[in-house]
Amino acid sequence: MAIRVYLVDDHQVVREGVRRLLEADGDIAVVGEAGTAADAVVGVESTLPDVAVLDVRLPDGDGISVCREIRSRHGNVACLMLTSFADDEALAHAVVAGAAGYVLKQVRGNELVTAVRSVAAGHRLIDSDTARRSLERLRHEHEVQAVEDRLTERETAILSLIAQGKTNREIGAELFLAEKTVKNYVSNLLAKLGMGRRSEAAAYAARLAARRAAGTDANGPSGSGGG
């Protein structure tokens, strides 16, 4: 039996090209297509394909959310993410959402066909090392965000200065605060972080800064646009 595929991409020209490519050998049949996240969920629900090829970026959402929705309702549908941009964060979210593969649109046509056949057969195209690194990076980003959410803007600034080894007096001079006020801020942020010593907060802040810098260097400037 032919592999049943559902295509999701906001560009009709892309969908038509992918459809012709996939159906060329006769063992793959495109059973439906959509240009939005909302239409994709409904379309997959009605056709129940073997594979859903999902564009990561859609006008009303994203393919990763569609993947999560599909996998929660129909675990037998394999999701293959298709995107124009190499994005570690998107890859990590795709892994969490249950995607079986993550492919760039720049791949050769035969490689895309092979990817569809592979995920239809139950294989995963995201190797375990790549998945582990992506999930670790995502966990680090969430950790950084969690800290920023717990602390006020002033506390965040003080934590950064603590990481630089500054004393309460030096922090007060830089932020135009009394030394006693700085001491109170430090006590509050230590309590929020569940730490008892200033040195712990300094080491923690330094690690967060290093992780943030590493994440920025790894990704480079963010891309924009569709795909």
Word description of this protein:
- This protein is an alpha/beta fold and 227 residues long.
- The protein has helices at residues 12-23, 37-47, 63-73, 88-97, 109-120, 128-150, 153-163, 168-175, 179-193, 198-219, and strands spanning 3-8, 28-34, 51-55, 57-58, 61-62, 78-83, 101-104.
- The strands form two sheets. A five-stranded parallel sheet has the order 2-1-3-6-7, sandwiched between helices. The protein has a two-stranded antiparallel sheet with strand order 4-5.
- Strand 6, helix 4 (88-97) and strand 7 (101-104) form a beta-alpha-beta unit.
- Helix 2 (37-47) runs parallel beside helix 3, helix 3 (63-73) runs parallel beside helix 4 (88-97) and helix 8 crosses helix 9.
- The chain is elongated and about 75 Å long.
- 30% of the residues are buried.
- The model is unreliable at 218-226 (pLDDT under 50).
